[in-house]
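FAQ: What does the model actually see?

It sees only this:
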Amino acid sequence: MKPGNGKIANLPPEIRDELNYRISDGDEGIELVEWLNAKPEVAEVVNQLFDGIPFSEQNLSEWRKRGYQKWLAHHNAVDESNAVHGNSADIAATGIDPDKLLLTLTGAYAEMTRNWMITPGEDMLYKLAVYKNLTNGVIALQRAELQKVRLEIARERLELLREKRLKKSASSSGPSNETAPESSPASNQTPTPPESSPQVQSPAPPSSPPAPRPTSGGEPSNRRPGLVPPNTLFDLPIGPKTIRPSR
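And it is asked to produce this:
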């Protein structure tokens, strides 16, 4: 709440509140002025902003008309709000809601319309103005109730969406987060190969007899005459030189 633009409005908030409470308690003007001017905090403000001119009853009178009225209205609204909040359970127990209030106003409109011929003009205009303001207030209550329901639905949808996303993320990251089962000690051991039975070595086959070497005078003893091994075609020494045998 803005304090205003008067001289007292420049005082610290705690001094203004104390002054308002003293005005509400019915303290006299001269007494309040003396109390203000005796405060060191007030003297500091007066010296800095008002050339040392102290507060007067005129300043206090102006404050009563403006600043004090704002403070009083604010505190009355706060007190009424606290009272309604404290009696909220009793109000809810009555079952009153905007729809029932609108029905009540509809009945009042019907009653006023039925009696409009015998109702004085000023009374009729006054009732119309009152019913109009009441109707606007009830419609505002209905809108507030509807907005409350919409907010509750939006909050429930948000909670469902959060749960859905959490379940989806948990299912997608589940396999990667699972730890591999610990292997048993038996599975970690390297299997030992079975002991092989001693093999009986079979006797080696008899070696073939070496090929007969050719004699210095002719064919090998185990070949037919006239046949010479290919590797000895050009190596047969006969006499002092090597000759090519005939085929």
